[in-house]
Specification:
Elements (H helix, E strand, L loop, with lengths): L1 E2 L2 H4 L14 E6 L2 E6 L7 E7 L23 E2 L5 E6 L4 E7 L6 E3 L3 E2 L6 E8 L2 E2 L4 E2 L20 E7 L4 E8 L7 E9 L11 E8 L2 E7 L16 E7 L5 E8 L5 E6 L5 E6 L4 E7 L6 E8 L13
Antiparallel strand pairs: 1-2, 1-12, 2-3, 3-4, 5-6, 6-7, 7-8, 7-9, 10-11, 10-13, 13-14, 14-15, 16-17, 17-18, 18-19, 20-21, 21-22, 22-23
């Protein structure tokens, strides 16, 4: 399940008819998106449930992984007026507008992704800033990243989607009609491994933007042999450079510091990357050159943490 931070969700709807802020959470899990009211209590109260089904024949091309809708994330767009949710099972990004009167989500046309690709996570880019800040909750307490400021200028907005089943990153230009829902135009699709063939059973997981770079985590690719005898090879983090027209170019793969980088986050200064390594049972800290965006060595780590699925900076 994923939820958006309350501090950002309070801005989703400026006010209700009574002029009181509408506070709510939005969560994705299983085959539904739900909204939860926090208006009169600190305990979330279920406000809206939006279940999904797949059209006939009731599954996607990858029947083992696409037997039903699988919502993996919810993200808020730069204007704070729309919610998006990647559906790995349905090969779509489900799009909703936020009703300014009651805070409910109204369905918009979905963004269709290539059949069998399995979209997992996405991030907006506007004015060189990352807009998508999500909170993941998997078998434990929710992680709560600090919300980033929303850029004032929306002259150029793009959406970047990583698809788990085919290891791709896809870019879309996003436009805002005077009325109605978002419009998307596909720009580019590339492998998360650049020109290298994706290793068998590898799977992209997370995506973030910092400065002029996109960073992705690749799970189970074993791209970097371990320096420690009798230990598993390390999986990778991929770096892409962003261009002015929202296109991107593969730069390099670098070590994730262990196996199955399920989640990672970049600190506010931009010089450190925390990586949650699910099957290495640890968190590692990797250096990042703020000027060049290059990822460096592991500078610290904490072991014996169990299956880490989320790591965020408290700053």
């Amino acid at each position: 399940m994923v939820v958006l931070p309350p501090s950002k969700l309070e801005k989703m709807v400026p006010s209700s008819p009574s002029r009181r802020p509408l506070q709510s959470l939005v969560a994705a899990g299983g085959s539904a998106v739900t909204t939860w009211s926090l208006l009169n209590s600190t305990t979330p109260k279920l406000y809206q449930t939006l279940p999904f089904t797949l059209p006939p024949p009731g599954h996607g091309p990858n029947q083992a992984r696409q037997d039903a809708p699988h919502q993996h994330q919810v993200i808020l767009d730069p204007t704070g007026k729309f919610i998006l949710s990647p559906d790995l099972g349905g090969d779509v990004i489900r799009v909703f507008s936020i009703n300014a009167t009651n805070g409910k989500l109204d369905a918009c046309p979905s963004l269709t992704i290539a059949p069998g690709s399995g979209p997992r996570h996405a991030v907006f880019r506007a004015a060189q800033s990352e807009i998508s800040m999500v909170v993941q909750q998997e078998d434990g307490q929710p992680c709560r990243p600090k919300p980033e400021p929303v850029p004032k200028s929306l002259a150029s907005v793009a959406l970047y989607v990583v698809s788990e089943l085919v290891n791709t990153i896809t870019a879309f230009n996003v436009t805002y009609p005077t009325r109605g829902c978002l419009a998307f135009e596909e720009i580019e699709v590339e492998s998360t491994f650049g020109n290298k063939t994706a290793p068998s059973d590898s799977a992209v997981a997370e995506i973030h933007i910092a400065g002029n770079e996109i960073y992705l985590s690749n799970r189970n690719d074993k791209s970097f042999p371990s320096a420690v005898p009798n230990t598993n090879a390390s999986d990778s983090l991929a770096t892409f450079s962003l261009r002015n027209n929202n296109e991107f170019q593969f730069r390099t793969l670098s070590t994730a510091g262990g196996t199955f980088p399920r989640h990672f986050s970049i600190n506010k200064a931009g010089d450190l990357v925390a990586v949650g390594l699910q099957f290495s049972f640890k968190v590692v800290i990797i250096s990042r050159n703020v000027e060049t965006g290059t990822l460096g060595d592991v500078v610290a780590e904490v072991d014996d943490l169990g299956q880490v699925t989320c790591v965020v900076w408290d700053e």
